[in-house]
Design brief:
The chain is about 45% helix and about 10% strand. By secondary structure, the chain is an alpha/beta fold. Strands 1, 2, 3, 6, 13, 14 and 15 form a seven-stranded mixed sheet that branches. The protein has a four-stranded mixed sheet with strand order 8-11-7-12, sandwiched between helices. The protein has a two-stranded antiparallel sheet with strand order 4-5. α8 packs parallel to α24 and α23 packs antiparallel against α24. The longest helix is centred in the middle third of the chain and has 25 residues. The two termini are about 35 Å apart.
């Protein structure tokens, strides 16, 4: 079955690195099947999506304007004198009535998670619902394929049939975490097929300008076809590298050269290793995720596999999968030992110590994956963030959560109002989207507050000092007695958490956001670069290549006809009324 193949594919990839995606302060279930969504222990809940108690400190109040990019539109902190026009316009909207059906994964829609304050998007939706007492919100919430693959498969199939018949949810709130059997595995095709309504005008009526300067525009553009905003990004990730500034300086790593492109960046990593074989680089994700390479051009009808950067990143991706490049650090044994001995806390602390002590050059991965490392490095040394550039020297972001309104929905106004609510400063500051708490907000001025909010959540995680209601809810769900933490355990958690990112590091992060030139949509594909059916022959060809079963030339020749066929199907569906040229 499809779900069995997906589990096998994930097991073949670098699954271990995703298990501590939130920089969790607690033990996470380890194995090829990934983290468990439901039935989590109190410790595992510590690393799940969270509701922040707020954000504080000077950095949380800062609005960064890298390279002069900041404008008055960005100074929209809640209650401030510079509050944006979209906030005021949203407050003036009339009360809504009726029933709004929202697609939201079970992980985020679970009422227990709301009680435990670990589902900020659900808390935000409840706040929106309270503003509109005449509006009823009903959830469509399939469970994760990790938890119950057959149940998810059935739910996705049912929803697919409903949508094909003109029904289904009014609003989709998608996150890249635990996607599994996706309703829309090829989002580019879905946008062009008319699956979603153009949100630009609907959101403008709510006072939100998706094309405005309040948002990171290269990220927002990922959801557009022409001027139509079919998908509305809510958060994103960057490919970054975390290093200790002292170690980086001593290594001879040429930052200026590394910024010229992905090949130059990884060449500098290899050169630093050649100078000092103790300075390996740990890659937490496949290098293709750093690329802006669109191998399928839907609008022009071209398959592009001959771009130089694609070949280079394919080869590096295989080296990573096989760990055949000597400068790539393979720390699986240390990871497993640390998880068994002290959980993710122990592993993240040890990695921060290695960075600060000059035992590792850097760790490269998504910005959300590296947050927990960065907090601990802030306590051990001096964190430095570098962009992992795409092949042209820009930075390619990945949309990590997004909303979409179903084409033909009778509740489009209410759906747009909820989307607009999630784009407001209060929600963006608190990371109120269906994604990882350490994702980056699409609202520019929310960057620092959201990062502080993520740290504050871990600092005040519910099980440190639970209310009686939380204890009772937890015990009712799991049927066992909740063990309260001792003072020593609480102190150990707080000490092991590290420190919030210093202002200098937050400023570096803002500068990296300002360098974003492109953004990709989430993909079911292991590398994120090639769209299409996740369990088809293209995926099989890639996995064979990663295992060393064929050369790069052989892979490209295998992929070319398969992707031409994929693109031909896509253009046949997307441009039914137009004469489409044959794929090049």
């Amino acid at each position: 079955m499809r779900f069995a193949k997906k589990k096998a594919r994930r097991a073949a990839g670098l699954v271990l690195c995703s298990l501590f995606a939130l920089g969790a302060a607690a033990t996470t279930a380890v194995g090829a099947a990934g983290p468990v969504e439901e039935g989590l222990s109190p410790a595992r809940f510590a690393g799940a999506e969270g509701q922040a108690a707020g954000s504080g400190g000077s950095a949380a109040d800062m609005v960064y304007a890298p390279d002069g990019a900041g404008t008055a539109a960005d100074t929209d902190a809640p209650g401030g004198a510079g509050a944006s026009a979209d906030t005021a316009a949203a407050d003036e909207q009339p009360a809504l009535t009726g029933t709004l059906t929202v697609y939201l994964e079970a992980l985020y829609a679970d009422e227990l998670n709301e009680t435990l304050n670990i589902s900020p998007v659900l808390s935000a939706i409840r706040a929106f619902e309270a503003q509109h007492p005449g509006l009823t919100i009903r959830f469509e919430s399939p469970v994760s394929g990790y938890h119950d693959p057959e149940a998810r498969e059935g739910a996705i199939d049912r929803l697919t049939d409903e949508i094909a018949a003109g029904g289904g949810p009014d609003l989709f709130l998608f996150g890249s975490f635990f996607r599994g059997s996706s309703l829309y595995p090829d989002l580019q095709r879905a946008m062009r097929e008319g699956a979603f309504a153009d949100c630009a005008g609907l959101l403008a009526a709510q006072g939100v300008d998706c094309a405005g300067e309040a948002f990171w525009q290269p990220v927002m553009a990922a959801g557009r076809v022409g001027r139509a905003q079919f998908l509305v990004p809510l958060s994103f990730e960057l490919p970054v590298a975390l290093a200790d500034s002292g170690t980086l300086g001593r290594s001879g790593f040429d930052t200026a050269r590394a910024e010229q492109g992905a090949a130059d960046f990884f060449s500098e990593c290899a050169a630093a290793f050649a100078r000092d074989p103790g300075l390996g680089t740990e890659l937490l994700e496949y290098p293709l995720r750093c690329s802006a390479l669109p191998v399928l051009d839907y609008d022009a009808g071209r398959v592009e596999l001959d771009r130089p950067g694609f070949r280079q990143l394919l080869e590096l991706q295989r080296a990573q999968a096989l760990r055949s490049a000597p400068w790539l650090a393979d720390d699986t044994a240390a990871f497993t030992e640390a998880i068994r001995g002290g959980g993710c806390d122990s592993y993240l602390h040890e990695e921060a110590r290695r960075l600060a002590g000059g035992e590792r050059l850097m760790i490269a991965g998504s910005s959300s994956l590296l947050a927990g490392y960065a907090w601990r490095l802030a306590a051990e040394g001096s964190p430095a963030l570098l962009a992992v550039p795409d092949e042209a020297g820009g930075v390619t972001a990945t949309v990590s959560s997004y909303g979409a309104i179903r084409q033909g929905s009778g509740e489009a106004e209410a759906a747009a109002a909820l989307l607009a609510f999630l784009l407001q400063p209060a929600q963006q500051n608190a990371a109120a989207w269906p994604g990882q708490r350490t994702d980056l907000p699409v609202r520019r001025s929310s960057l620092a507050p959201a990062q502080q909010s993520a740290y504050r959540f871990e600092e005040t995680i519910w099980w440190l000092d639970p209310t009686e209601e939380q204890v009772q809810a937890w015990e009712a769900r799991f049927g066992e007695r909740f063990e309260r933490r001792t003072e020593a355990e609480r102190a150990a958690h707080l000490e092991g958490l590290g420190q919030p990112l210093p202002d200098e590091t937050l400023a570096q992060l803002a500068g990296l956001c300002g360098r974003v030139t492109a953004a990709r949509l989430p993909s079911d594909w292991p590398g994120g670069a090639v769209p299409g059916g996740a369990d088809g022959p293209v995926s099989a060809a890639l996995e064979d290549y990663w295992r060393g079963g064929c050369s790069t030339d052989e892979l490209i020749e295998t992929l070319r006809p398969l992707l031409k066929e994929e693109l031909a199907r896509a253009r046949s569906a997307c441009f039914k009324s137009q004469a489409s040229p044959a794929p090049a």
